[in-house]
Amino acid sequence: MSRKTLLNSKEIEIILHRLACQLIENHNDFSNTVLIGLQPRGSFLANRLVDLLKNEYGIKNLELGLLDITFYRDDFRRRDEPLEATPTEIDFLIEDKKVVIIDDVLYSGRSVRAALTAIQSYGRPDNIELLVLIDRRFSRHLPIQPNYKGRQVDAINEEKVIVNWKETHKKDVIYLDNTVE
Amino acid sequence: MKELSVENLLGIKYLTKSDVNLIFETADHFKEVLNRPIKKVPSLRDITIANLFFENSTRTKLSFELAEKRLSADVINFSASQSSVKKGETLIDTVNNILSMKVDIVVMRHPNVGAGVFLSKHVDAKIINAGDGTHEHPTQALLDSYSIREKLGTVKGKKIVIVGDVLHSRVALSNIFALKLQGAQVKVCGPTTLIPKHITSLGVEVETNLKKALEWCDVANVLRVQHERMDIKYFPSTREYTQLFGINKQILDNLGKKIVIMHPGPINRGVEITSDVADADQSIILNQVENGVAVRMAVIYLLAQQIKR
Fold it and tell me: pLDDT at position A99, please?
């Protein structure tokens, strides 16, 4: 297996700032916008963006929810390993709100499809946008594209994008692993 | 990744401690789903479930049906009183006919002990025991333990007394298995005639004095007097039963501590417990009903996970 570093911590920091600024351009003071991190891995990115928006860019009253999509997946009973749910923490209604779904890697688009269904359990949003850190653009199974992306990656199916956050792996780094020898 | 160690839910005695924990963790997620504006997930949209009730039931049947519908399963219902069972059809024939309609999971209540086990050996579907005679009622025991865990934080180390008609109660037996599995201390309390002879071999103590039992416990799970299962007189009169084993507000107030009151329903108000006890803030009877849907969703979901297409 070979491993290539896609983004180091400095590059990730710059990208996070850019994504935060892009969000501000479109959502101003976030008075009618909510951020939804997809559990489990999208929640790290969502939390980091919220920290930046609050502490570096002075956005107040930012609402962040964490959404688990396990029960909405289309591969229930098709996987070798059973699916394990993680908690959903959304304590607000999203009726008529602008929703930004946040995930770390956009691959087939099936997780986002599940999230679009799941989010409707909390009301009918005004519109929904998608923010991802890594967009694997040639791997899509569904017609889903991000509105905001950190880095576009042209990876083949045998390659895996590994996102390590300093909260869990001591430092921020994104690798591209090739599982084919 | 976690999966149940069993292929059917036939009784608590077949479950491991980690099975119970997995069911509770999954139920936590479904409880959150049940508190959303839209209380439904699409997980089981290609699963068909048959609810076969060969014995009357209101709350268990409603609870299962709601749980199945909240998971988006297709549901068919069957009750023996309106069926070919009355015409002499056997259990296997009845079930096989239903399974020919491509049913994936069978939820069955049956008056005979071991009906679920028997069926699991003869039909190719997941079986969930919704009560077999006076034997087991596993989902009730799971929701009872789940409700205790929710109220007191844990089941381990808690002192729980099961009061009343233990002899005829499948809830009592499943509860004893479930509570012991999770490390609780269990006593049973009731008239000697309604306590099974060898109950102590299950690791529970017998207490025939209600006051002493309540002074000892953290939780009292009060059972219904099952008049319909009594072929002989087990106690002189309902009035005497109520005087000796009925729980009223005065008894609870004199305890000097607040114990949790549970009841699997339906309640004979004024017999096992008085109305003011059933409706008191220390009673978690309605929480049990609410948790029943989440726990049954968890059981169905985890068993359905094993069905591969």
Answer: 97
Count of beta carbons in the 10 Å neighbourhood of residue B124: 8
Return the residue matching tokens 């869990």. A168
Q: What is the mean pLDDT of chain A?
A: 92
Query: Treating both helix axes as pointing N-terminal to C-terminal, what angle do B91-99 and B115-122 enclose, rounded to 10 degrees?
Result: 50
Q: Could you tell me the pTM of the whole model?
A: 0.86
Asked if B36's CB is within 8 angstroms of A77's CB, the reply is no
**Is B41's CB within 8 Å of A87's CB?**
no
Our CA angle for B270, B171, B21, nearest 5°, is: 125
Q: What does the angle CA B20 – CA B37 – CA A142 come to, to the nearest 5 degrees? A: 85
Tens-place pLDDT, residues A71-121: 998 888 777 777 788 889 998 889 999 999 999 999 999 999 999 999 988
Residues of chain B under the 70 pLDDT cut: 1, 81-87, 228-232, 309
Chain A: residue whose CA lies nearest to B25: A85
A156 interfacial to chain B (CB closer than 8 Å): no
Mutation site, B28, B47, B305, interface A, largest A CB count within 10 A? B305
Confidence band of A144 (pLDDT split at 50, 70, 90):
very high
The alpha-carbon gap from A118 to the nearest alpha carbon of chain B, in Å, equals 8
Alpha-carbon gap, residue B139 to B293, rounded angstroms: 10
Query: Which of B255, B271, B286, B288 lies closest to B142, judged by CA?
Result: B288
Answer yes or no: are the C-beta atoms of B41 and B293 closer than 8 Å. no
Task: Give the whole-number percent of chain A exceeding pLDDT 90.
Answer: 73
CA distances from B111 to B29, B56, B63, B219 (A): 33, 9, 19, 29
CB contacts of B41 in chain A (<8 Å) are: 71-72, 118, 121
Q: Which residues of A touch B26 (CB under 8 A)?
A: 85
CA B291 to chain CA mean position, Å = 11
User: Environment class of residue B126 by beta-carbon count within 10 Å: exposed (0-12), middle (13-18) or buried (19+)?
Assistant: buried
- Min distance B26 CA to chain A CA atoms (Å): 7
Specify the amino acid at residue B294.
A
- pLDDT tens digits, B35-54: 988 899 999 988 999 999 99
Q: List all residues 6 or more positions away from B232 whose beta carbon is below 8 Å from its beta carbon.
A: none
Tokens of B269: 């108000």
Nearest Cβ partner for A117 among B36, B42, B309: B42
In the chain, the amino acid numbered B309 is R
